[in-house]
Specification:
Elements: E1 12-16, H1 32-44, E2 49-52, H2 56-59, H3 68-83, E3 87-93, E4 96-97, E5 100-101, H4 119-136, E6 142-148, H5 167-184, H6 197-200, H7 208-213, E7 218-222, H8 228-232, H9 237-240, H10 242-253, E8 261-266, H11 278-289, E9 295-300, H12 331-343, E10 355-359, H13 378-388, E11 394-397, H14 404-409, E12 414-416, H15 418-423, E13 428-429
Parallel strand pairs: 1-2, 1-9, 2-3, 3-6, 7-8, 8-9, 10-11, 10-12
Antiparallel strand pairs: 4-5, 12-13
Amino acid sequence: MPEQDTDRRPPRFGVNYTPSQGWFHHWLDFDLDAVRADLDAVAGLGLDHVRVFPLWPLFQPNRTLIRPRAVEQLVALADAAAERGLDVAVDGLQGHLSSFDFLPAWTRTWHRRGLFTDPDVLAGQQEYLRTLAAALADRPAFLGMTVGNEFNQFADGPHPDPDRIDAAQAGAWLELMLGACERGAPGRPHLHAAYDAAWYQDGHPFTPAHAARLGAVTAVHSWVFNGTAQRHGATGVATEQHAAYLIELSKAWADDPRRPVWLQEVGAPAPHIPPDGVARFTAATVDAALDCADVWGVTWWCSHDVDRALADFPELEYGLGLFTTDGTAKPAARTLAERAAAWRGRPHRPAPRTTALVVDVGEPEAAPHRSVCAPGGPVFEAWARLAADGVRPALVLDSHTGDADRLAARGITELVTPAEVSGGTTVRRTD
């Protein structure tokens, strides 16, 4: 991950692994047999990879202690996955999962220091990421490291206690963390992942440029409870193609027109997607995402439901699994399995998206007006309108509309602005 010529290889299908017993607290009582049973169920769907989440405070409870036993358990999980034909991607800094923060005590309260700027914290984070990557580096099934799961949420509101930084500091932190992963596992494709504030929230220090240019691949996390489903309904085009929209939005900032994009998280959250609509949403989301070029793969959130014996999760988090906690496959599981089977051995060659919607966010590096791309914003709503009309729109930065070579490399032959879409104006040729 990622291979070159991604549109000439079958897309990958996988799942974010949430253990059926104990959720991510399973690291406290690690049971390899239980993990194997979970992975048997995942492999039985015909999926080919899992994304795995060690809990940072359990693996590095002290800045200078990375627990060898915890690292051994992570490697054992990776080996068990490989035995079942599943490749393994590992997120390092957890960080944040399903509304809960997991930060080691040496970064909080009496030891409070900046997660993104303090030299000692940075050194500890780098050694932790390097250690995990090095432990997995010789495993053929190891895909690479993701720096952490949506770690950007610690840098800005709405987090109740953020460690605020600016965009330059965010970029410097990402470079350091990616470098640590590379030192641990040289040559593996390492990346970082942000929740959609990076694309949608004005002033957020992690920017679209960071997401689309740093690391080996762009990670996209698509959640329609962000206002999309509320505005457009469970079966609206904007809802069913939200993941495709984010994939195409990432391409507007990518310097490499062939940069791979990984739909690393996507799920069907209730009540925004009702139970009788999950299969349709799953199929529509996957089909729309794979109608975009250079998609490395789709990784569903998540493998198993959260056990209702565990308290205080937001209600929607309990039912996102492909399987119930007792291992029963749900409609999303069957639909994803069908899509994986249909694509097995089939080259991924979507037709070019020849019409591009122009994105003006102000200066493109900082993207000070990126909220125009958010649900309800003029770019988002114009893209949804074009998609509903069957246009298959791409997205291009306003600053790139005069770059004929860039447009040609992406197959773009026509441009249209949000204002022109709302006014019914026809698209303009680029040649």
